[in-house]
Design brief:
Low-confidence stretches: 4-11, 13-24
Largest sheet: 4 strands, antiparallel
């Protein structure tokens, strides 16, 4: 009985070591820094009111859903979704004069190349589709980020 117990313990140790050290990727400090930079790049693109630069931050098949549930899938659709708002087009939410401020992201690693990222934000000078100002907006955006070809 003692030999069987030791054999089982030995096999578990071997399997654990192979699982733990056999992983081809690990989440590094450089990954954390790259994710924080991506959050900052989103803020910069938004504050530049540049729909093309904002859309470029997404995967080619990425999806964006706003706070009221409207969404766009794919870079081109994400760009087209944001362009009228950044231009201040009547009948749309307007971010033409808005300033977005992101807080430091909270990163939860799902897999070494997949992370859930929560970012609290605040925004001023935004306007509703009816033209009334929406002052001091605050919210939380959750990003599902994927590391593809070495880039977050």
């Amino acid at each position: 009985m003692k030999k069987i117990f030791l054999l089982v313990l030995f096999l578990q140790a071997i399997l654990f070591i192979n699982y733990s050290f056999g992983q081809s990727h690990s989440f590094l400090n450089s990954d954390s820094l790259a994710i924080k930079k991506a959050s900052h790049d989103f803020e910069v693109a938004f504050n530049s009111h540049d729909a093309k630069s904002l859309a470029a931050l997404f995967l080619s098949n990425g999806e964006f859903t706003n706070v009221v549930g409207a969404s766009a899938k794919g870079r081109k659709a994400i760009e087209e979704f944001h362009a009228p708002m950044f231009e201040g087009k009547p009948g749309y939410f307007s971010f033409k004069s808005s300033t977005l401020k992101n807080e430091i992201p909270k990163i939860t690693v799902i897999k070494p190349d997949v992370a859930s990222v929560d970012v609290f934000w605040s925004m001023d000078k935004s306007f509703l589709p009816d033209g009334s100002e929406s002052k001091n907006r605050r919210g939380l955006v959750t990003l599902l980020m994927v590391k593809e070809n070495g880039k977050w």
